[in-house]
Amino acid sequence: MARKRAASVIPGFGLTLGYTLLYLGLVVLIPLSATFVKAAHITWPQLHDILLDPQVLAAFRLSFTASAGAALVNGVFGLLVAWVLVRYQFPGRGFLDSMVDLPFALPTAVAGIALCTVYAETGWIGGPLSKLGIKVAYTQFGVIVALIFIGLPFVVRTVQPVLEDLDKEVEEAATSLGANRWQIFRRLIFPAVLPSLFTGLSLAFARALGEYGSVIFISGNMPMKTEIVPLIIVSKLEQYDYVGATAVACIMLVLSFALLLIINMMQRWAGARTRGGH
Fold first, then answer.
1. pLDDT tens digits, one per residue of 244-255
2. Cα(39)–Cα(47) distance, rounded to whole angstroms?
3. What pLDDT band is residue 60 in, cutting at 50, 70 and 90?
4. Contacts by 38-46 with C-beta closer than 8 Å and gap 24+?
5. DSSP 163-209
6. How many CB atoms lie within 10 A of CB 265?
7. What is the mean pLDDT of the chain?
8. What is the pTM of this model?
9. What is the Cα–Cα distance from 207 to 17, expressed in whole angstroms?
């Protein structure tokens, strides 16, 4: 007697998988593939000249270092913000929780103008800082500030649900067994939130790499100093240098994908380690 075929866990799996592949193909794979097809016409000498241009190299250096720095800052303070929102009740908590999502809804150009106004030497924050010798607007520091602003919600919103699901009784049991606050955080809380923290960091990092609108206002766009890669691509397109723009875009895409792949592997490792109870 032929063995009865096991029913699919998800009804209509074949159909939904087909639509999923079609959707991802139309929205993601085909546009990205078109970029690489366009880049296939670039000769190696052209690619060499474009990518080793000192202005392009400086833009790559700033984009990746500023994005990584902003993501790490958001990793620390995003965890702190999520902790405060989950563990404490205080007046204005709902308003503060809503403010976290503001960078999601705010147009990036508006965010850039607002940051530039506040952090300029005549601004509310930039004025006092300039008296201390710290200049934010039109510097690389300003680029990091803009990327921190747009990346914060990604960390908070990925860590927050995990903190809400943590069992407080486990912490109380650890306290009764003599563990101090630092030991509870290091041995119980941090391993539990680490996978979601990696997810938030990778999302914030990816968002920062592609950010354009909020950065161009506060950076000043000075060649070799405060230019980012998206600005280089737009500048080349405005100069009808489609070959140069395509080459820079492809390299940016490959590097970004490689870094995100590494971060995702670290996230999986952290998740497996947490589930294994180490």
1. 888 898 888 888
2. 9
3. very high
4. 38/242, 38/246, 39/246, 39/247, 39/249, 39/250, 41/243, 42/243, 42/246, 42/247, 46/243, 46/247
5. HHHS-HHHHHHHHHTT--HHHHIIIIIHHHHHHHHHHHHHHHHHHHH
6. 11
7. 86
8. 0.85
9. 27
